[in-house]
Amino acid sequence: MKQILAAMLATAALATPAQAAFNSAYTDLDLDECLVLDADDFGASWACPGYKGYPLMVSEGDLRFSLAYGFNIDPSDRWQTLPPFNRLGERLEWRLSNDLGRWMPIATIVRYHTADPETGEDKGQVLVVTQLVEGNICHIAYIDAVANENANELAREAADTSGDFDCVNDEVEIIGTFEAY
What we know:
Shape: globular
Strand order of the largest sheet: 1-6-7-8-9-10
Distance between the termini: 68 Å
């Protein structure tokens, strides 16, 4: 009887979903590998490969870049960017959760290089954390990658809390020391 009970408990333990775990996957952010959707004297937009086919669009206008994610991207939506002129880093970190029993993207972390307003030269670096919740996709945190020694860890911690952020009413959190612009 004890063996049957032990076997049942072991089977139940295996069937119980584990606590949500997080992981990272990376994709290159190389605009030369992306499909140009539109380009003129005022800017451009690209469709780029995302994590396992997750849609990613890049837009540039007024020397500022922005990203849009998801299956229902509306080109007329106002995309988020940073105030200073900027450019994107070369890699995109996708934060994944297995809360549903398979690895799904819940947030991204991308490095923005910000320009000095006087010279146009690179001045700072900001890790931008974006929540990926269909219908509620937006920046949720900014971390100065130069001023904070543990910037990547801070960004991952912020990304792993995504899901509860209200893009309409909540204000983007600045985490740690911030001197990027």
